[in-house]
Design a protein that fits this description.
- By secondary structure, the protein is mainly β.
- The protein is about 15% helix and about 35% strand.
- Strands 1, 3, 4, 6, 10, 11, 13, 14, 15 and 17 form a 10-stranded antiparallel β-sheet that branches.
- The longest helix is centred in the first third of the chain and has 24 residues, at about 5-25.
- About 35% of the residues are buried.
Length: about 280
């Protein structure tokens, strides 16, 4: 190869690397790399943080799988896999599908049930027997083949939210999404803007909006009282995915970090409009 050609090749490679790196920093971040779980921490009820009991969370063929073939009985061993760092302002995109049959011993309400936990507590602060992280849950539900069953609902383990400027005490509130039966892939997106507003989208359609997430309420057990500071506004937190007894697969978990736009409403609206068109 001629020297000039070699230099041009190096320059082109450098530009491609820089472009890719810049886009990764300013644009979408793949939280799940499609290869392994090195950036994630598992916490399963009745087990210590970091113990991936029965290989519940695993990666096969580029997909993150939640499986229970190593369980004799589910026995309320609710689990979550947490990304390594917290976020405050972001758009989270999750592509998921329910597969197979529910694990033996799973609760009836947990059939085809999982979730993306938003603004969650640090998994290192969860006690061994704690069932759910204190967080806001974007609840993911699959249809039963017959009945209407909305997905991308909201549940509040150890938290509260406002709907239409009114504090709600209900643990779960339904979205107005379509029902997705069978093993089809569904795209759920969660727009989280600090402690101001959270919006849920399903296949690009807005299905739920609520505001003022904060610590409070019930529906979480065996937690450290020092961590559950009722009334504390949730401005940031960890993202996690659930294992609630029904097998589920995630082929994409990506995040667009909006922190740099948090103090400029005009720029924020522009980037959100751009993301909506993607």
């Amino acid at each position: 190869m001629k020297p000039n050609s070699y230099l041009r090749l190096l320059t082109l490679a450098s530009l491609l690397f820089c472009t890719s790196a810049c886009q990764a920093q300013k644009g979408w971040i793949n939280l799940f790399n499609g290869k392994d779980l090195k950036d994630w921490t598992v916490k399963i009820a009745k087990h210590e943080v970091g113990e991936n009991y029965a290989n519940t969370f695993r990666v096969e063929n580029g997909v993150m799988k939640v499986s229970y073939d190593g369980y004799e009985n589910f026995d309320k061993q609710y689990g979550h896999i947490h990304y390594k760092k917290p976020f405050s302002y972001y758009l989270l995109k999750v592509e998921y599908r329910f597969v197979g049959d529910q694990a033996k011993g799973g609760e009836g309400w947990a059939t085809r049930n999982s979730g993306a936990m938003l603004h969650g507590q640090d998994p290192k602060t969860m006690l061994k027997d704690q069932d759910f992280p204190i967080s806001i849950e974007g609840q993911l539900l699959g249809g039963d083949g017959t009945h209407e069953r909305h997905t991308s609902n909201v549940c509040t383990p150890g938290t509260t939210i406002y709907m239409d400027d009114k504090l709600t005490v209900a643990h779960c509130l339904e979205s107005n999404s379509k029902t997705f039966h069978g093993e089809q892939w569904v795209t759920a997106e969660f727009l989280v803007l600090g402690d101001s507003v959270i919006k849920h989208y399903v296949n690009k359609e807005l299905v739920l909006t609520y505001t003022k997430p904060q610590v409070g309420g019930g529906s979480v057990s065996n937690f450290d009282p020092k961590v559950k500071q009722d009334g504390k506004r949730l401005t940031s937190g960890y993202i996690s995915l659930q294992s609630e007894s029904h097998p589920i697969e995630f082929r994409k978990v990506a995040l667009f970090d909006l922190a740099s736009y948090s103090k400029d409403k005009v720029k924020l609206e522009k980037i959100l409009a751009k993301l909506k068109e993607e």
